[in-house]
Amino acid sequence: MQIPSKLPDVGTTIFSVMTRKALERDAINLSQGFPDIPVPSRLRSLLDEAVAAGHNQYAPLHGVEALREAIARLLDGRDGHRPDAEREITVTSGATEALFDAIQASVAPGDEVVILDPAYDAYGPAVQLAGGSVVRMPLEAGSFRVDWRQLAERITARTRLIIVNNPHNPSGAVFSRTDLDELAALVHDTGILILADEVYEHIVFDARPHHSVHAHPQLRERSFVVGSFGKTFHCTGWKVGYCVAPPALTAELRKIHQYVTFATMTPAQVALAGFMAEEPDHPAALAVMYQSKRDRFTAHLERAGFKLVPTPGTYFQLADYSALSDLDDVDFADHLIEQTGVAAIPLSPFYERPPAGQRLLRFCFAKRDETLDAAGERLCRI
Ligand code: PMP
Ligand code: GLN
């Protein structure tokens, strides 16, 4: 039986497509973004202990208290502002659920939502399901920075939400404090809300701070800020994330959350809360570890003939292959798997209209050094 599709233009995500191809070809999978670094062993035992201790029934809908308090402590230390764990923090089943809930809570039919291209693929379909229309704005070619004057031109009386992603997937670009000030000036005296996808908040390199919307008083009061424990604790499969927002926004987000999932897996929340209390420095140590992986892997890419886009954040590296091939990026990603046994993600699926002639692939370097070295060796065969 056929039903009319609510998302007629949506297929299977490029992440699943490339991972399937990697498995079929037994390739080293640097496509879909997930670490092959093990979950910290203490965190694994805390999960076992939480299950054994009987934390196996529904959690409170807004999240286990100890975990919400741990998030509040972490953000207080970093942003100099402590969110109210009871009224402003909601634990969700991954950042994906938080993004979906925030969009459903804020966007009504006829509203416009500004998305910066290239964009993570979860935003557009959620806006469409809420009845909103997506207004795409290209980031500057090459630098992936926001041209705030151009963004101002996209704002209309119907603009309800601007979605920003910092650090940015797929480019690795990060916001400066000036970017946040520009954003604040743009929405000042309007009813526009911000959805800040900050899942790579702890992966900013070269000793730079992460400039969170949560640290900016004018933005904080109108923002949903989304994080993910998957990225921070090497457990993307646990699907635990969170949203921080002022009480009135949180109240609306929770109305959606309670009917999407109601609550998030209890023992994982208990384990994460315990680990964050025992190892408060784990998030801050991520940047140093991933920076050394970035530098290790980029040396391999350069040796193989790729040109690199600078990566100030995230665990993704963009590489220009125009010196190696004239194929478009989707075909070249297939060619790379065939020829070298390394899987990467083509960039064009992140765009509404990919820039003509752009020859970029995204590699995930959240991998053990042995994996990165093996991939580097294979890439030299191209
Ligand atoms: N936003 C961005 C930018 C991401 O890269 C990802 C995931 N990989 C997510 C959201 C989703 O996070 P989660 O796995 O916690 O749902
Ligand atoms: N966020 C991950 C990435 O960018 C993928 C998550 C997913 O497969 N949905 O690769």
Give keywords.
binds 4'-deoxy-4'-aminopyridoxal-5'-phosphate; 13 strands; Aspartate Aminotransferase, domain 1; 382 residues; alpha/beta; 41% helix; single chain; 15% strand; globular; Aspartate Aminotransferase, domain 2
Provide a brief overview of the structure:
It is built from 14 helices and 13 strands. The protein is α/β, with parallel strands linked by helices. It has two domains: 14-32 and 283-379, Aspartate Aminotransferase, domain 1; 41-278, Aspartate Aminotransferase, domain 2 (3-Layer(aba) Sandwich).
- Tally of DSSP β-strands: 13
CATH-derived topology of the largest domain: Aspartate Aminotransferase, domain 2
User: Any idea what the shape is?
Assistant: globular
The helicity comes to: 40-55%
What average pLDDT do the residues reach? 97
How many H/I helical runs? 14
Which CATH class of the largest domain applies here? Alpha Beta
Query: How do the strands line up in the largest sheet?
Result: 2-8-7-6-5-3-4
SSE string: HEHHEHEHEHEHEHEHEHHHEEHEEEH
Q: Pick out the low-confidence regions.
A: none
SS-derived structural category: alpha/beta
Instruction: Give the CATH H-level superfamily of the largest domain.
Output: Type I PLP-dependent aspartate aminotransferase-like (Major domain)
Radius of gyration: 20 Å
Task: Tell me the fraction of residues in β-strands, as a range.
Answer: 5-15%
Give every kind of bound small molecule, once each.
4'-deoxy-4'-aminopyridoxal-5'-phosphate, glutamine
CATH architecture descriptor name of the largest domain:
3-Layer(aba) Sandwich
For the termini, the CA-CA separation is: 46 Å
